[in-house]
Design goal:
Layout: E1 16-21, H1 28-47, E2 51-59, E3 62-69, H2 72-85, E4 94-98, E5 103-107
Antiparallel strand pairs: 1-3, 1-4, 2-3, 4-5
Helix pairs in contact: 1-2
Length: 118
């Protein structure tokens, strides 16, 4: 099944988020980085039927990539490896999973900082 044939589950919602800080509302380079992360993670998820990227947002000091993931416990390690392969997995990025009442932080290990979609 090719990328053009991918059909997402109707009930799959955004449940994994990749964030990184930006300067104010973001520079052109930071926008390009967000787009690169979106494309990379979308391709990785689609390569094994794990979900898809649902776009991104940027402003107020942060950029967020929204992912719709079927099985986060299986998919997130693959997403982290894809970021690592591309030299993008640094402590600048925060990768979290919406687990209901709060978010589980997958990266960076031991991250105790906050997380917000606002």
């Amino acid at each position: 099944m090719g990328d053009d044939d991918y059909i997402p589950d109707e009930d799959l919602s955004e449940n994994v988020f990749v964030q990184f800080p930006v300067d104010g509302f973001g520079t052109d380079d930071e926008f390009d980085l967000r787009c690169r992360v979106e494309e990379l993670l979308d391709a990785e998820l689609k390569s094994f039927g794990g979900g898809m990227c649902n776009g991104g947002d940027m402003g107020s000091g942060g950029a967020t990539v929204f992912l719709m993931v079927r099985d986060p416990a299986t998919a997130i390690p693959r997403l982290l490896e894809a970021l690592r392969r591309e030299g993008l997995l640094t402590d600048r990025f925060v990768v979290t999973e919406d687990t209901g009442p709060k978010h589980k932080c997958w990266w960076p290990e031991g991250h105790t900082g906050g997380f917000s979609l606002l």
